[in-house]
Amino acid sequence: MKKKFINASIYKHNDAREILVEDGKFVAFGNNLGEADEVIDLGGKFVLPPYVDSHLHLDYYFTGKDDGSENDTGTLFEGIARWSKIKIGQTKEQAKERMYKGVQEVMSHGTQYIRAQTDCTAPELKNIKAMLEVRDELKDKVTIQVVALPQEGMYAYQSGGKTGLQLVEEALKLGADVVGGIPHFEHSAQEGKQSMQDVVDLALKYNKLIDVHCDETDDPNSRFVQDLNANAYRAGIGKQTTASHTCSFGSADDAYAFRMMQLFKQSGINFTSQPTENLYLQGRQDSYPKRRGITRVKEFFHDGINVSFGQDSICDPWYPAGNGNMMMILDHGIHAAQLMSDEDFEHVFDLVTYNGATTLHIEDEYGLDAGKDANFIVLDAPNAFEAIRNRADCLASIRKGEYLFKKAPQAYDVSLSL
């Protein structure tokens, strides 16, 4: 069956106004694309590939509303301590229920691709098992990659006769897609450095991607990203590797940053920034001037180093708000990174679309190109600039040519008149 979507403003297809879809695949983008079994008028609205949330903790969803979960210091480390107690009492069924609710909320804003950071530092691996089930049960509606994250450390965590390192490997054997790590939470720099070799060794052993919570601290001496980058580069898997957060790189001196930028380019490593969460968590020990916890997003973006944005958390011990709307994450991120020139406005949607797909290593299947699955979203705006300026709502999400949801544009019962 052929469907033709007409009267569209299409990202990266400036001259095209029509989209032809057949059997769930994009056939063509252009004008006067011929007859179709169904013609859908998009009313001049802006079409994007679906949002990609390249860093989201679905197993923590709304655990911040549990008794005793409030983070008094507002720091990463207290958040981990609070979560350590919460997860003991959470069953696999409860975790799965939270995950479903989290996925539904995120998808309602136009996200169809999620990298789900999932805690594996529990001997039963209940969160990993729940997340793997959710991934497989929802695969026709949303693409989820499961990260085996040792939230309490590969070496710092030991319980039930197992280390975090052993549990990461067990999670990979169960089917997790990505090797995680958190070197700045280990008890020593030596253990942190060793964990950066471990993630590469495990990725090679099991043919997995890598995504490390890396240097999520204001300490400019936290430089595990250089170990991760060097190990991945030597192994030839830089493009399959992601450094998440890297807050300390925003505090590092320029001489170090200049050298590392060259090495990042050589390896092809990816970066993700979580602007709302790190704006909230970082700089807690500063008076003024107060650091804001954002890595060098602008420099990465302008220098051809792949960087994307993620929501990170939704109402958990680390972050008390959030709703998975990547438009809001983009808005906060480009303000914090000062990515708002005329030229930037034409490209910054990449931070929550194409760059995220590169991070997830799914470039071959993602995007607005003929032959690929007809996955896209429709925003309530006529172009990229107006969508960003007005923080445009997502009116529709289409997967393989079929609506996941559709709603009417904003309308007034009584319009403003002057």
Descriptive report:
- With 418 residues, the protein is α/β, with parallel strands linked by helices.
- Helix content is 32%, strand content 21%.
- It contains 13 helices and 19 strands.
- The chain has helices at 76-86, 92-107, 126-137, 164-174, 189-206, 224-235, 254-267, 275-281, 297-302, 326-337, 342-345, 354-359, 384-389; strands at 2-6, 9-10, 18-22, 25-30, 38-41, 46-48, 51-56, 111-119, 143-149, 158-159, 162-163, 178-181, 209-214, 241-245, 270-273, 307-309, 376-379, 394-399, 402-406.
- The strands form four sheets. It has an eight-stranded parallel β-sheet. Strands 2-6-17-18-19 form a five-stranded mixed β-sheet, with no helix packed on it.
- α3 links the parallel β8 (111-119) and β9 (143-149).
- The longest helix is centred in the middle third of the chain and has 18 residues, at 189-206.
- It is globular and about 65 Å long.
- It starts with a strand and ends in a 12-residue tail after the last strand.
- The mean pLDDT is 96.
Largest sheet data: 8 strands, parallel
* Number of beta-strand segments: 19
Structural class, by secondary structure, is alpha/beta
- The quaternary organization reads as single chain
Q: Terminal Cα separation, in Å?
A: 48 Å
* Low-confidence spans: none
Strand composition percent? 15-25%
Helix content: 25-40%
Q: Can you give the mean pLDDT? A: 96
Rg from Cα:
21 Å
Shape: globular
- Tally of contiguous helical segments: 13
